[in-house]
Amino acid sequence: TTGMVTYDPGFMNTAACRSAITYIDGDAGILRYRGYPIEQLAESSSYLETGYLLSHGELPTAEEALEWEDRILRHTHVHDDYQRLISSFPREAHPMAILSSAVAAMPGHYHEVFDITSAEQMDLATVLLLAKAPTLMAYALRHARHQDKPDVAPEIGYVADMLRLSVGPHRRWEPDPAMVRALDVLLLLHADHEQNCSTSTVRNVGSAGANLFLSVSAGISALAGPKHGGANEAVLAMLEEIRDSGVAVSEFMTKVKDKSSGARLMGFGHRVYKNYDPRAAIVKKLADEVLSSMGKRDELLDIAMELEGIALADDYFVERKLYPNVDFYTGLIYRAMGFPTSMFTPLFAIGRMPGWIAQWREMMQDPSTKIARPRQVYTGPLERDFVPVQDRP
Ligand code: SDX
Question: How far is ligand 1, taken at its centre, from the CA of residue 270, in Å?
């Protein structure tokens, strides 16, 4: 009833851990954070409030929410050392590499938050990471664009300032409230997702006793892979390739079904969801709303919707239970907001930050946690004697 997973070491998909944070029913397309359906949180909550829920297990009271947001807003500024670190990267470096490096550099400034037995210090580490990650991401984008790195303006709000710093045309620009809410929802939708590749990486690294920042830095690296968080960037490239090729969408789908082509329908399929990813349904509706409100009827959205329509009616995809996942529509919204495709996965990383933190905290506070040490099925040569080089053929 609680979605608890039992251990069965003999089973290939052995449950990696026990967790009370996120529940997924892949067959039914259900996702809940601490028991709350993702649809209700997307409708009524916020990214920061969801971050509090994931780490603390309960929704904050009005007073707790205000104090939580105020603490985070007081820490969004980053030390000049980070600006120098980011500026030391080649301009064409991928922002995920910069973000992973900058987060890994944080212990140099915040060594005092390593006491995992102190709830206060765990909260401080959480606040610091949630506060500074968006600023580091924005500075990475500005570095690539040869732009300066203006100081933060927390008074306009957490998500609004993330947009201002990243895509604002000038320092005093403030984003439209509808755009702020859309990004807030997108970040919230990505906040956690059980034991996905990057979260498992954070847990594995943390299980060795590595601190929160180093563990999350490893998670950022895992998320960069195109099969994982990098898919939202790959979806845009796929849609643009279809548009620019002049090939009919149905012809592209025929190519995808021909395995020898190696073509994949990016943004489709999921290791756990064998039904529509509930997040994708919310993002698809949001994409339509945001693009319409911005007066941007996007031909790529039309191509995406045509791809989905064909896939949902085609036995090849239906038999393999391939449905849109969270990455299929998100890039279209990010692009409409002014983010380059290179920032799509960093935005996924910012969204997933609260989940990585909550999962790391849960693991570190579990006295039964042992260092991750998966076993293997050995497929190499049987025992044999060494052959000196002069006797080798
Ligand atoms: C995320 O784990 C998470 O929770 C991840 C995530 C999160 O929030 O953290 O949800 C975020 O990573 C979403 C996934 C983003 N990735 C993509 O969109 C990339 C495209 N999708 C895939 O590469 C693939 O679907 C995976 C990696 C997501 C899942 O891979 P699996 O588990 O190997 O796929 P499968 O075993 O379910 O495949 C079944 C069949 C196979 O064909 P057959 O061998 O049975 O003939 O479906 C085929 C696969 O080849 N298939 C696809 C396909 N995905 C699977 N064929 C075409 N296009 C695809 N996208």
Answer: 4
Taking the centre of ligand 1 as the mean of its atom positions, its distance from the CA of residue 187, in whole angstroms, is 22
pLDDT of residue 14: 55
Specify the residue with its C-alpha closest to ligand 1, atom 39: 320
Tokens at residue 255, please? 């190519």
Q: Is 257 in the pocket of ligand 1 (CB under 6 A)?
A: no
Atom of ligand 1 nearest to the CA of 256: 57
Residue 269 CA to chain centroid, in angstroms?
A: 17
Q: Give the distance (Å) from ligand 1 centre to CA of residue 264.
A: 9
Q: Please report, for residues 8, 89, 117, 267, 349, the alpha-carbon distance to residue 216 in angstroms, rounded to integers and kept in the order given.
A: 28, 20, 19, 24, 10
Q: Is this model's pTM higher than 0.95 or not?
A: no
Length of the chain as a residue count: 393
38's tokens: 């993702």
Question: Mean pLDDT of residues grouped by 10 in the chain (393 residues)?
Answer: 44 70 97 98 98 98 98 97 97 97 92 76 93 98 95 97 96 94 98 97 95 96 93 94 92 92 92 95 93 83 94 94 95 94 96 98 93 93 97 96
Q: What is the pLDDT of residue 101?
A: 98
ipTM comes to: 0.96
Does the C-beta of 279 come closer than 6 Å to ligand 1? no
